[in-house]
Amino acid sequence: MKPEQFIREQGLPEAKQILEMAPEDATHYELNVDGDFYFKQERFDWFCFGGGELIKTYMDEYETQHLIPLSFLNRLVESLDIIEFHEGISGAKLVYKLRPSDAEGVDLWVRLERAIKDHESIYGEEQ
Fold first, then answer.
1. DSSP states of 62-119 as a string?
2. Does the residue 113 lie in any domain?
3. What confidence tier does 127 reach under pLDDT thresholds 50, 70, 90?
4. What CA–CA distance (Å, rounded) separates 7 from 13?
5. Domain around 97
6. Interval 40-69 mean pLDDT
7. Does a structural domain hold residue 127?
8. Is it the case that residue 112 has pLDDT exceeding 70?
9. Please, are residues 79 and 112 in contact by the beta-carbon 8 Å criterion?
């Protein structure tokens, strides 16, 4: 499942909880009928966090396609927090539209633009 789909179907609070509960070294998350699992990828090796242990596991490429990269999920959550700070997507777009003309490439504006694109990738474009 893609992170955008996860947030759309499970909600932002659930995404935040997953990030908060993730073991320190976890890189990926999986939700399936057996529960939820955290994984760590090191080069070509995969490890599963289970019972307080890190267990090496074999995963084919097709098995890893449904894992959610935690770094990507975290970026999307941060983007939605930025949108919320601007009181919604309309407010964020207005602030971005009114940015100074010499603001191109400034990190703040680049990040706001990314947050708007992330919001649209999750919920679609505002009408």
1. HHHTTPEEHHHHHHHHHHHHHHHHTTSHHHHHHHHHTS-GGGTT-HHHHHHHHHHHHH
2. yes
3. very low
4. 9
5. 3-122
6. 88
7. no
8. yes
9. no
Q: Is the sign of the CA dihedral 3, 5, 8, 10 positive or negative?
A: negative
Per the DSSP assignment, residues forming a β-bridge with 47 are: 40, 56
Characterize 66-96 residue by residue with b for buried, 16 or more Cβ atoms within 10 angstroms of its Cβ, and e for exposed: ebbbbeebbbbbebbebbeebeebeebbeee
Does residue 116 lie within any of the structural domains? Answer: yes
User: Considering only CA atoms, which of 18, 15, 64, 16 is closest in space to residue 41?
Assistant: 64
The answer to whether position 17 is within a domain reads yes
How far apart are the C-alpha atoms of 3 and 1, rounded to whole Å? Answer: 6
- How much is the pTM? 0.88
Number of domains the chain is built from: 1
Percent above pLDDT 90 for the chain: 69
What is the C-alpha separation between 84 and 96, in angstroms, rounded?
A: 14
Q: What is the pLDDT of residues 59-85, one digit of tens each?
A: 888 778 889 999 999 999 999 999 999
The mean pLDDT value for 96-119 works out to: 87
